[in-house]
Amino acid sequence: MNKIKKIWMENKVLLVLAIILIICVVIFASVAISYFYGSSGSVYGNRLDATKKVPLANSKLEKIKKDIETNEIVKSAKVNLKGKIVYIIINFKDNTKMEDSQKIAENVLESFTEEELKVYDLEFTISSESSDEKFTSYTLMGAKNSNGSETISWSNYNISEESSVKE
Questions:
Q1: Which of 47, 62, 81, 115 ranks highest by number of CB atoms within 10 Å?
Q2: pLDDT band at 166, cuts 50/70/90?
Q3: Residue-number span of the structural domain to which 32 is assigned
Q4: What distance in Å separates the CA atoms of residue 83 and residue 48, rounded to the nearest whole number?
Q5: HSE on the CB side for 31, CA within 13 Å?
């Protein structure tokens, strides 16, 4: 017992600092563990609550894909749902005009109900290759937000070339 008293008296400051350090490490470890591993809920949090009220069935997505592929200028189409975003990828046959491909993509909006359009975001990727000198190859990205936009906003659209046809 005398040895403990002697060590305490000689190293009081160091022992107090060591105890404070141990307490800080325990607090830091518990905060870090709860931050990185503590949440066992969905990775999306509560952002997908609206999708439970207005679900999109896989059969509907397959029907939309088949409807797109019935068009004669469409080479292939993919429709995927991840979270609350519907990804629509359309590959058009060679030498398809950009305006024609945009119209087909915009017609996809008619396949969704008003409630679905208010809940789900739509992401479009359309592309066409060119084997003719009169046409340019293109890949366009478009998006329709669920927050009330009525149309698809297209990006990577070259305003100087209103058409995919070269003059």
A1: 81
A2: low
A3: 2-37
A4: 7
A5: 6
